[in-house]
Design a protein that fits this description.
A hairpin with a 3-residue loop joins strand 3 and strand 4. The radius of gyration is 27 Å and the shape is globular. The chain has 600 residues and is of the alpha+beta class.
Length: 600
């Protein structure tokens, strides 16, 4: 959505702003005649690439007959097999899916479902991203909230006013094609013109005269185009290497699961993958068990792999309840996984919910004949303690295991191996008072579990996750958006200072949750109306609509602090430690856009 304050500036301009706008518009929109706007939308023959382009601008020939047949009417083919626009961009499956929808909805392309799937599979594989390019933007297909790293203020102003940076960064284009994309933005969105001209520029002080227009000044969007063309260009070393290395996914077999569900803890299990109808389609059978309460879960599903590494799938439980709770793990889940290039492990997120707010962080490891460590039942060990019992879960653990086979590093002694099986080791360990705090690898013979456990002397502070987030009101018509919180413990690092880069994460800490008012206005009362928070951190929003109990019969929206409180083992007076998260409860998504040309 376009911010309200910027919308106001767009409507109510000073005379100086109007003059500056008029001066720039002629230069910036010179290419945006009616014909150019039409070309930016439908990409017809006039956008055919010049044959004299440099090697950096050479396109990727399209060799698939269905793509050429269905797309070649508007995207003209040159003598090298390049289709205009299509041959000069690469993207993720989600990026290409949006592009295909745009062609159908705006340009009247007619596709049978089988043709659409075929085109999506071809473009995502042969005009896709290399694994190394896709991994930094996996949070987009995973629907994961993330604080994005902003390259510079100009990019922030030109791109992030309307959408996440990941939406742009999941594409690779020539600089010319990035330019065509900005033209399309101006054609579709009036506010884009303003953002492209003013991004990164400070606003004049109240009452101050705006600077005089400079028609020769370089527009901010041109700096953004330079950045995108250089950092997110079409041709990269990673893509060149992956074209040579790409191979069909060989995933059939047993895969060990190590998972974490926010608010529910760690899960372990196994996924059995079987071959589907084609070499890149698969069926799955999943068995999982909670390390926290022992509850079990079985699921079946299917998946499709694009470009040799990008898993997209769905799974569901045969034991799904008739009317499951929002956070019920038997609900149907979507799956977005990144498979390692050597096809030995995969990681990503399974997610569900009306706003994809619920999810499982998953890592899959191929099971071989070798011993494998998956996870531990606890995340931290305190210094100066004895006989702390730990459980390690794995695969193919030998029957002749002894205590000496386990190694937690200096200062941690494996006192005895209480029990062991092919999938589990239970041990008692002593931690020296002078053991060095920090993350430790855990090794069993030659099997290693990296950064599996943290050694600490005290919990210095809590971090509530997510640190800031959104929930949504709901009704019988519009779905609610829920939120689950957790408290993560931290110890100050080697520098002795809290909240610095070397702090040691201790994992989830048992805590109780409550809400505090985020005082934004006099007499703020949001806490009373926005919803309820359970003691274990699950937030359920209130109903949508005017509330006569509130002043001015306002809706139940508002913002609060979510507070986690835990026992402080090192405080003689028993004073607890706490942490906060900022929660905004807003209105439902009244309109659910599935149109890429207007989606956020």
């Amino acid at each position: 959505m376009y911010p309200l304050q910027n919308f106001a500036r767009h409507i109510y301009r000073t005379p100086e702003e109007t003059s500056r706008r008029t001066a720039h518009r002629g230069r910036f929109r010179l290419a945006l005649t009616a014909a150019t706007i039409a070309m930016a939308i439908s990409a017809p023959a006039a956008f055919a690439q010049d044959a004299a382009k440099s090697a950096a601008d050479e396109g990727i020939p399209v060799t698939d007959a269905v793509v050429v047949s269905k797309c070649g009417t508007c995207h003209r083919k040159d003598d090298k097999g390049n289709l205009s626009r299509i041959s000069y961009v690469r993207s993720t499956p989600e990026g290409w899916e949006e592009a295909i929808k745009r062609m159908v909805r705006l340009n009247g392309v007619t596709l049978a479902p089988t043709e659409a799937r075929s085109i999506l599979k071809y473009l995502s594989t042969y005009h896709g991203l290399a694994p190394e390019e896709a991994k930094p933007v996996m949070y987009m297909p995973e629907h994961r909230l993330r604080d994005e790293e902003i390259p510079n203020e100009t990019v922030r102003g030109t791109c992030m006013t309307c959408h996440a940076l990941g939406k742009a960064f999941q594409w690779r284009r020539t600089r010319d094609d990035w330019k065509l994309l900005t033209n399309m933005h101006v054609a579709f969105y009036a506010q884009a013109d303003v953002a492209f001209r003013r991004a990164g520029a400070p606003n004049p002080a109240p009452g101050a005269a705006a600077p005089a227009a400079n028609v020769n000044a370089k527009l901010p969007v041109e700096d953004t185009l330079d950045f995108l063309g250089k950092s997110y260009g079409l041709h990269t070393v990673e893509w060149s290497n992956w074209q040579a290395r790409m191979r069909a996914p060989k995933l059939v077999g047993r895969w060990a699961i190590a998972a974490h569900v926010t608010g529910k803890g760690k899960y372990v299990g196994e996924m059995t993958i079987a071959q589907g109808a084609t070499e890149d389609e698969f069926t799955t059978r999943i068995k999982m068990q909670s390390l926290k309460d022992g509850s079990k879960l079985e699921r079946t599903g299917s998946g499709l792999v694009y470009a040799g590494y990008a898993w997209r799938g769905r799974s569901k439980s045969a034991a799904a309840a008739a009317n499951p709770s929002p956070y019920d793990l038997t609900r149907e889940m979507r799956e977005a996984l990144w498979i390692s290039p050597d096809q030995t492990y995969a990681e990503g997120r399974w997610f569900w919910g009306e706003y994809q707010e619920f999810g499982v962080d998953v890592k899959l490891t191929r099971i071989t004949a070798d011993p494998l460590l998956l996870t531990m039942d606890r995340s931290s060990l305190k210094t100066g303690s004895s006989s702390q019992r730990v459980k390690l879960v794995g695969e193919n653990l030998p029957a002749d295991a002894v205590a000496a086979d386990l190694d937690f590093g200096s200062g941690v002694k494996v006192k005895t191996l209480v029990s062991h099986s092919a999938t589990e080791l239970v041990a008692d360990v002593d931690v020296a008072a002078n053991a060095v705090p920090g993350k430790r690898d855990v090794a069993f013979r030659r099997a290693v579990l990296p950064s599996a456990v943290a050694v600490y002397d005290r919990v210095d502070y809590l971090q509530v996750v997510p640190e800031s987030t959104i929930a949504r009101l709901g009704s019988d018509v519009h779905p609610k958006g829920y939120q689950q919180f957790e408290a993560i413990g931290y110890q100050r690092g080697a520098d002795g200072k809290a909240h610095t880069a070397d702090d040691v994460e201790l994992g989830v800490i048992d805590a109780s949750f409550s809400m505090e008012e985020f005082l934004a206005v006099y007499g703020d009362d949001d806490k009373e109306f926005i919803g309820s928070l359970s003691n274990d951190g699950f937030f359920t929003p209130s109903m949508d609509g005017p509330n006569p109990q509130r002043k001015f019969s306002r809706n139940n929206y508002g913002d609060v602090w979510v507070v986690a409180t835990a026992k402080n083992e090192n405080d003689k007076d028993g004073k607890p430690i706490s942490g906060k998260s900022y929660l905004v409860v807003t209105v439902p998504s009244y309109i659910r856009w599935d149109q890429p040309e207007v989606a956020p």
